[in-house]
């Protein structure tokens, strides 16, 4: 590995030289300081794994020595270095993140590393690495085909199997295609242990998918929320349950045990597919409401009074994040490739395609206002993250919306109170809304429902004092009083509101 290569933190901008030596002595010293504690290794330091290290470091009924492990490459090493410097690599609005992190630093029971030696001392390994779906789509996001590449996931499992103890508990939290633990993970670990001359009867393999919600309830979405779990066999399920009871408030949020890992894997992709289809369903009704002069928000809220329909979704610019954009495809891919059924889950696949095209619908709505000519128009996009009050831009629907605007020659400024650098676009994002609003724009578009934009009298007043703007609310941030005020000097449109 060349020492001239760096990993740069998107949070601080600090550069870290990639390591060239192993980290064994650092790990040994850490374990010596935490003598007598069981060792939990969390594989993957992304939005789930990084926070999982804090949960385990602050376990409810056990004292663990926790090691987070990730790759020593340009994209990931900064997370390792940041954690070891006492800087948590995830920004969120949840105050518990900082509280848990401060407690962890006082305990000195968290280390981050890139060295696979960590697996050799682990009692429990939690797998939190990404498993992506590669979509082949045209510029309009019409899905042509897709594939699931298990190669990185398999490499992660081999790293465990080639180094772990024979009596380790491997707990997969990664969202995977149903059948993965039984048909992929178990054979890999078993084969690795056999080649090392170790017993294959003592290791335990469990699956318990995360329901992490980045934002104000980040920690609680793990520690204080319901969990579903299973094991590759009864012994594995028992060990998984035993561990989960040490980190989750199970008295208030009882665990649910399913019959096998196929079931828990299916549960995760089914619950996300259901939500993705619910969102896709409302898309065509948004178009209908706009055509019919109807406020779809008040229609949906009226329907939600009926308990059986309380989760009917509201209009928006689109679906983002790591789960809903891919999980229906993981399920369909599994049916075809792991269970060898040629018939896909057609409705689930269709929901992804509809949701991926939602930014195009919003863009076309905007473009029609300018007679299909956006060249040279100056647009301010308020919010680039996919969800309110988080710095998560993974698969944000704002990205294709931005691309469509850019392709038409528009000049674009970006604001987000949580995002300084939009990694996927290599763009700087401003957090200084006051100064941005001093500039002249033709378009102001609300793209993320951050708390900073909701009931913000200063923001609305600043916008209202300008003249001849097109205010485009893609997610229903504006209330009726704000819309009435803005309409005095501006043209206002809201996705799903044909009455405006």
From TrEMBL:
Source superkingdom: Bacteria
Key words, A-Z: NAD, Oxidoreductase
Alphabetized Pfam families for the sequence: UDPG_MGDP_dh, UDPG_MGDP_dh_C, UDPG_MGDP_dh_N
Domain (UDP-glucose/GDP-mannose dehydrogenase C-terminal) ranges: 380-480
Keyword Metal-binding carried by entry: no
Family the entry assigns: Belongs to the UDP-glucose/GDP-mannose dehydrogenase family.
NCBIfam families from the UniProt entry: NDP-sugDHase
Official protein name in the record: Nucleotide sugar dehydrogenase
Organism: Flaviramulus aquimarinus
């Amino acid at each position: 590995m060349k020492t001239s290569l760096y990993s740069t933190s998107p949070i601080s901008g600090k550069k870290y030289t990639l390591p060239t030596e192993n980290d064994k002595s650092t790990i040994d010293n850490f374990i010596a300081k935490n003598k007598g504690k069981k060792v939990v290794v969390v594989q993957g330091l992304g939005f789930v794994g990084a926070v999982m290290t804090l949960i385990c470091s602050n376990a409810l009924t056990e004292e663990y020595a926790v090691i987070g492990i990730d790759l020593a490459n340009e994209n990931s090493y900064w997370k390792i270095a940041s954690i070891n410097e006492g800087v948590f690599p995830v920004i969120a609005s949840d105050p518990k993140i900082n509280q848990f992190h401060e407690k962890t630093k006082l305990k000195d029971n968290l280390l981050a590393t890139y060295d696979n030696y960590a697996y050799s001392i682990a009692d429990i390994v939690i797998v939190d690495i990404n498993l992506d779906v590669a979509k082949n789509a045209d510029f309009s996001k019409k899905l042509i085909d897709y594939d699931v590449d298990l190669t990185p996931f398999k490499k992660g499992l081999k790293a465990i199997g080639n180094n772990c103890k024979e009596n380790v508990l491997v707990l997969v939290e990664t969202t995977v295609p149903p059948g993965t633990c039984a048909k992929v993970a178990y054979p890999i670990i078993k084969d690795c242990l056999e080649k090392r001359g170790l017993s294959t009867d003592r290791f335990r393999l469990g699956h318990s998918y995360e329901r992490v919600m980045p934002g104000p309830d980040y920690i609680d979405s793990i520690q204080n929320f319901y969990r579903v779990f299973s094991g590759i066999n009864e012994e594995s399920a028992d060990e998984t349950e035993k561990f989960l009871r040490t980190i989750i408030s199970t008295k208030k949020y009882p665990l649910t045990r399913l019959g096998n890992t196929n079931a828990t894997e299916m549960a995760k992709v089914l619950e996300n597919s259901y939500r993705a289809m619910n969102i896709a369903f409302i898309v065509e009704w948004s178009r209908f409401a706009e055509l019919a002069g109807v406020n779809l928000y008040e229609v949906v809220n009226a329907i939600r009074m009926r308990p059986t329909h309380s989760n009917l979704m509201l209009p928006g610019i689109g679906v983002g994040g790591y789960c809903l954009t891919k999980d229906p495809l993981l399920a369909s891919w599994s049916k075809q490739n792991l269970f060898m059924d040629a018939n896909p889950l057609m409705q689930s696949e269709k929901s992804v395609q509809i949701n991926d095209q939602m930014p195009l619908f919003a863009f076309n709505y905007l473009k029609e206002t300018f007679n299909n000519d956006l060249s040279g128009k100056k647009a301010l996009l308020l919010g680039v993250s996919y969800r309110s009050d988080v710095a998560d831009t993974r698969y944000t629907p704002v990205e294709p919306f931005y691309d469509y605007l850019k392709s038409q020659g528009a000049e674009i400024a970006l604001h987000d109170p949580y995002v300084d650098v939009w990694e996927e676009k290599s763009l700087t994002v401003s957090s200084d809304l006051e100064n941005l609003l001093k500039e002249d724009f033709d378009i102001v578009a609300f793209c993320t429902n951050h708390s900073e934009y909701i009931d913000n009298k200063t923001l609305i007043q600043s916008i209202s004092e300008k003249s001849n703007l097109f205010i485009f609310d893609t997610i229903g941030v504006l209330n009726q009083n704000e819309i009435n005020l803005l309409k005095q000097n501006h043209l206002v449109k809201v996705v799903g509101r044909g009455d405006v």
